């Protein structure tokens, strides 16, 4: 079910604006899709699918917030395995290196 308070894009990545979700019958979601020439008015089903069963590219997909963060991970050797931790305060603890990891994912990605 499409929520007017959420942000959407098409399955192939085009930007979408949703204006209303209470239209009649199968044309219940009203909005616009950005194309090369500008904004073009569109309608979708309640579940966000476009009306052509052959063209899934125009289906709506929720845009989730991105998580961007930098973290440092500590590497410790244990036999043939590496242990990863977020604490590497002293070499005498066995920490061999700290690795900088840049995280840039969509919320929920990989779950």
What does this structure look like?
There is one protein chain. The protein is elongated and about 65 Å long. The two termini are 21 Å apart. The protein has no helices and 8 strands. The strands form 3 sheets. Strands 2-3-4 form a 3-stranded antiparallel beta sheet, with no helix packed on it. It has a 3-stranded antiparallel beta sheet with strand order 7-6-8, with no helix packed on it. It has a two-stranded antiparallel ribbon with strand order 1-5. The protein has 2 domains: 8-62; 66-106, no CATH class. The model has no long low-confidence stretch (mean pLDDT 83). The chain has strands at 8-10, 16-20, 29-35, 38-44, 60-62, 66-78, 81-85, 97-106. With 111 residues, it is mainly beta.
Number of strands: 8
* Alpha-beta classification: mainly beta
Q: Please state how the strands of the largest beta sheet are arranged side by side.
A: 2-3-4
Q: Major β-sheet, in short?
A: 3 strands, antiparallel
* Average pLDDT reading: 83
How many separate structural domains?
2
Rough outline: elongated
């Amino acid at each position: 079910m499409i929520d007017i308070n959420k942000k959407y894009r098409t399955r192939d990545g085009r930007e979408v604006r949703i204006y209303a979700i209470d239209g009649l019958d199968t044309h219940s979601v009203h909005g616009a899709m950005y194309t090369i020439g500008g904004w073009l008015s569109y309608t979708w089903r309640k579940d966000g699918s476009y009306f052509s069963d052959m063209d899934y590219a125009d289906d709506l997909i929720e845009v989730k917030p991105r998580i961007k963060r930098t973290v440092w991970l500590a590497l410790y050797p244990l036999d043939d395995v590496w242990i990863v931790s977020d604490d590497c305060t002293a070499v005498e603890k066995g920490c061999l290196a700290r690795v900088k990891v840049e995280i840039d994912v969509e919320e929920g990605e990989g779950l």
